[in-house]
Amino acid sequence: MTEAELMQLLAAITPPDDTACAAAHAHWASLAKPLGGLGALETLLEDAAALTGKAQFDFSRRAVAVLCADNGVVAQGISQTDQSVTRAVAENLAARRTSVCRMAQTVHCDVLPVDMGIAGAPVPGLRDCRVAAGTADFTKGPAMTRAEAVEAIGRGIALTRQLAAEGYGLVATGEMGIGNTTTSSAVAAVLLAQPVQTMTGRGAGLSDAGLARKADAIRRGIACNVPNPDDVLDVLGKLGGFDIAGLCGMFLGGALAGVPVLMDGFISGVAALCAVRLCPAAAKAVFASHCSTEPAARLVLEVLGKKPLLTAGLHLGEGTGAVASIPLWDMALAVYEGCYSFAEGGIAPYTPQC
């Protein structure tokens, strides 16, 4: 995909459908229960209506796409493990043995592991969206070219649109890539004009010394590349990863295809931030699932204006938090479609008192 083609796609993203949103709100108000009594479970379906343009829903087919990629900055000692672990986890994703696979099975959610750019040879059993065999070390120069950033976004867009064409009504996002909390923190620090220490956490459990190395690598990467905070593609290309860029594309694809895309934690939240900075109207496709324990996760949610359904101390990745929220979508829809109305119960409808 070229940058011009990407911009053409972004121009096709329409604002939310206020009429459909209002229809869903009116339906909730007709049901025999306190007005707004299900809180965020009601507004998530109203927001889904605004995205899809319909007040009727089908989430029976759902998938979690786990985008896998390696990050050259791992060479700076910013993680507990080397990038061989990305490959090991990807192989187990393909064998459906990881945490998200076991969780997804319980909510009848398909797992789609995706190779966005794993180092070395391709991993059998992953969908091939590979841009390159990992990014470069951003402390020595750009992580990728601007054209590669655009291509990764384009492949994420195509992935969500393909899932929509296959009949999936709900798409969760996940990722796997050693070093990707470093790349996410770097991108977020620049886009949000925040101090590096504010945006940087321990990832998979760094020691104090490891956390200091991680923050130092991010500072050096920013100083080396001087990314333009007003140019998302510049920031992604210089400091990001193929997984983040691909996830950014997935949110944009959801806005184009009218499919809700569930954020996972901090990394997919940064990807959603990139998507919304590229096209503010794409926010209609972004649905928060949980608030990660990564220090900057709540800040990213606040900037996006998204409220998490869950706060359970999760910070595993792979899309586990997004998948954990799916039962709440199911319960919301069960009430929306099956609860009796005030009219059916012979009860006078509740009216707002304030």
TrEMBL record:
A Gene Ontology BP annotation from the UniProt entry: cobalamin biosynthetic process
Domain of life: Bacteria
Function: Catalyzes the synthesis of alpha-ribazole-5'-phosphate from nicotinate mononucleotide (NAMN) and 5,6-dimethylbenzimidazole (DMB).
Reactions the enzyme catalyzes: 5,6-dimethylbenzimidazole + nicotinate beta-D-ribonucleotide = alpha-ribazole 5'-phosphate + nicotinate + H(+)
Similarity annotation: Belongs to the CobT family.
Keyword Glycosyltransferase: yes
Pathway: Nucleoside biosynthesis; alpha-ribazole biosynthesis; alpha-ribazole from 5,6-dimethylbenzimidazole: step 1/2
Pfam families in alphabetical order: DBI_PRT
UniProt entry keywords in alphabetical sequence: Cobalamin biosynthesis, Glycosyltransferase, Transferase
InterPro entries named in the record: Nict_dMeBzImd_PRibTrfase, Nict_dMeBzImd_PRibTrfase_bact, Nict_dMeBzImd_PRibTrfase_N, Nict_dMeBzImd_PRibTrfase_sf
Protein name from the UniProt record: Nicotinate-nucleotide--dimethylbenzimidazole phosphoribosyltransferase
Enzyme Commission no: 2.4.2.21
GO molecular function annotations of the record: nicotinate-nucleotide-dimethylbenzimidazole phosphoribosyltransferase activity
